[in-house]
Amino acid sequence: MTLSTDGWKVARTSLQTRNENNKADAWEIQTLHGFNALYPNDLATGHVLGDVRGALTLSNGLK
To answer: What superkingdom heads the lineage (predicted)?
Structure first.
C-alpha cells in the first residue's frame, strides 16, 4: 500500500514482502542489506512465517 500526498510517497517494504506491490526497489534493497552490516550483533533474527519485519519509506521526486 502506498500513500501519496503533496508530492510525497509513503510506503512500507522489506526484503521478504508478501505483497508484490510492496517490493523493495534497488536503493531500498541496498539499504536494507546495509542494516545487517551496521548492526552485526542485532538479536532480532530468526523470524518465522507471519512475523512482520520491514521498513517505511518516504520519498519526494526532485523537480
So the answer is: Bacteria
